[in-house]
Write a structure and sequence with these properties.
This protein has 344 residues and is α+β, with helices and mostly antiparallel strands. The protein folds into 2 domains: 144 residues, 60s Ribosomal Protein L30, Chain: A (2-Layer Sandwich), CATH 3.30.1330; 169 residues, Phosphoribosyl-aminoimidazole Synthetase, Chain A, domain 2 (Alpha-Beta Complex), CATH 3.90.650.10. Helix 3 links the parallel strand 4 and strand 5. Helix 4 crosses helix 5. The model has no long low-confidence stretch (mean pLDDT 95). It binds adenosine-5'-diphosphate and magnesium ion. Belongs to the thiamine-monophosphate kinase family. Pathway: Cofactor biosynthesis; thiamine diphosphate biosynthesis; thiamine diphosphate from thiamine phosphate: step 1/1. One of its GO terms (biological process) is thiamine diphosphate biosynthetic process. It is an enzyme of class 2 (transferase).
Length: 344
Amino acid sequence: MSDQNRTEINKLGEFGLIDKIAEKFSKQNNSTKYAIGDDAAVIDVGDYYQLVSTDMLVEGVHFDLSYFPLHHLGFKAVAVNVSDIAAMNGIAEQITVSLALSNRFSFEAIDAFYEGVKAACDAYKVDLVGGDTTASPSGLMISVTAIGKVDKDKIAYRSGAKVNDIVCVTGDLGGAYMGLQVLEREKQVFLENPDMQPQLDKYQYIVGRQLKPEARMDLVHELLDLKIVPTSMIDISDGLASELHHIAKHSDVGINVHEDKLPFATNTQETALEFKLDPNTAILNGGEDYELLFTISQDDFEKVKNHPDIHFIGYINEKSSGLNLVTTKGNPIPLKAQGWDHFS
Ligand code: ADP
Ligand code: MG
């Protein structure tokens, strides 16, 4: 092929590339209910839907072993996949774990990784049912697939948000991103002066958010008990703004979120200010919090209005009004999605 026909991947972006891949394929089995495009694939197995999600973590791209303990990495690799099952309002039941590793790793290192995998299997009640192990020329690559299930009338796609629905988010945002900034800074300090010990006490909360994220499976169980089916749902892996764009696009709606309603921890805000960053940048665009972003119908609000860990951040509007952040002063400003783009 001549260079004139060459399309750079970074021109397409991650989502553009996925769209191009998806375009190539058409459905061959009726059991394939929903293929590429949501947090998990949806397979009709008769009485319920089976959910399948897969995610890859690559050394040097997603984690740095100089500050990422292997047992935490094992936990995180499982949690981020369970989170995608949770984002469909499903319950994860099985995982497979595949590794590509170099001879740089000892058995003890891999065992530590699997201690983390096991802790996550216990925490989320999932079974490790297989995987693959292969050699890698240098770095560590981890691929996890999670399998789950959901009742057909309880599935939550990205596409079901309706005008007037309430936009909800669990937990607090931006912490994992600020935790990463701290870890990267301490790494640089250490590289310049190996006698310096990292100072992490003050940042315990946000560093924990980066190293030990939890899948919000607890919320899925709570919604089930409360008999609430979210009209749409997605997990926050790339940042709130990016996930809001997905909901708006898939549901064909507009969204207003209110700046003064966005949940964040004091530790996140203080650290952002210390790094001379606008805390809103971390809250809106910082990834990897793995909280759930979802919409509920107004009729369900009474059941959750006093929930300590669900925050009501805005409303669904007609598509024509777009996606906006309503500032504390009441001015709507169009919300751009920055998120993570691994190809830029
Ligand atoms: P998430 O952040 O929730 O894990 P992604 O943005 O990674 O979701 O993926 C979005 C959708 O694209 C998912 O349905 C995923 O399975 C699909 N996808 C991503 N990469 C590929 C690929 N290389 N081939 C086919 N499908 C893909
Ligand atoms: Mg997801």
